[in-house]
Amino acid sequence: MAVDPLPLTHPLLGCVHAVLEEVEQAGQHDPAYLNSAEKRAALLIVTAAVEQLRAVQVRLLANADDVAVDTGARDVAAWAELAMRVDRSETARATRLGEALDRRWTRLAAAFLDGRVTEAQVKVLVRALDALPERLGPALRGRAEEYLVEQAAEFAPRELKVLADRVLEKLAPEIAEEEERRRLESEERAARRTTSLTMHARGDGSTDIRIRVPEHVAARLKVYLESITSPRQPGRPDPNDEQARLPYPRRLGDAFCALLERLPAKALPQHGGTATSVMVTIPFDQLKSGLGAADLGTGDRITATEARRLACTADLLPVVLGGKGEVLDLGRARRLFSSGQRKAMAIRDLQCRADGCSIPAAWCEAHHLRPWSQGGRTDLEDGVLLCPWHHHRGHDPRYRANRLPNGDYRFTRRT
User: Fold this and answer.
1) What is the CA radius of gyration of the chain?
2) Which CATH architecture group holds 339-413?
3) Nearest 5°: phi and psi at 319?
4) Domain residues of the chain, as ranges?
5) Is the CB of residue 64 less than 8 Å from the CB of residue 78?
């Protein structure tokens, strides 16, 4: 970055100008020629220099209101965006950090300037110290600041945050429990107020769901989803398991879909005067062939193949139409396997019957060997347990299912 020459009337300007010249010189040397020990030393020195320069920078920003006034900028961050081509929001955060150090936490500011703490540690400590209750008084708040600065010599930002959040337990245990109760209650109220869920259809067959919920709700959802994505498996996991190689977010997304499909309609409140369920309308010929599309009661459309898969296990109510559009079948008695049948299949199959898959029966879905849409019967002889991954394969026209002599099924892609 080009720097305009200025008369060096203040020692600070002389210092930073000399630093800039030295940095330009350092940039002329290729680090590839350093050995490992030299690289370690250089990294430590450069990092320490960067951190201490950052401390000088945030201190300058905290005292640069007159720069904005003289240049007519809204604030120093707006001026920096144009003058230095830096991110405005980042500069604003750095300015607030500098103000907190300059006006409230001077011990921490001194430790930042002389290199005893890093910027990441400073951010953690300022957030924790600002959260201390006012009724503690300046003496106890000063003790907390001094204690946390000492701990920063030993702990990285993540561990330091844990210590900082519990500093009252160390310095004032008689009031720590009450303050924690107040803090948690405040956080819970705030979390409830900001809870939201929005859906945005992307127009490509998928929808973005953005959700904000209290932490304990998110933790419970994560447990549910991970129980579907990572059930206990006997023996070592198969390294050829295609599902296990999927990225973690993809597996959580698949688990979320499976969780919704397994929600029992009877456990949900009535919707429109009837039990909550989704109706899918499809001509009989398309349901039988697996070709074409089906209409959902929500106004959306899915493929006939997906409708056939959902008919196996989901609380989905098929409305089958004849050639002239008349209703041939509104659901069908015993479309889904009963709880007793599921237990019998679990005893018989023990796990997913796809070749090489060891997902336990408890995490599998009952699949009609002869598709329900083609008149398949809901009985034990016509049912088999498949994990959600292979259940999709069972209804995917791109795959062929071959039954092996031991009763397992091997899925191969059609050519």
Assistant:
1) 32
2) Orthogonal Bundle (1.10)
3) -115, 100
4) 42-191, 216-262, 270-331, 339-413
5) no
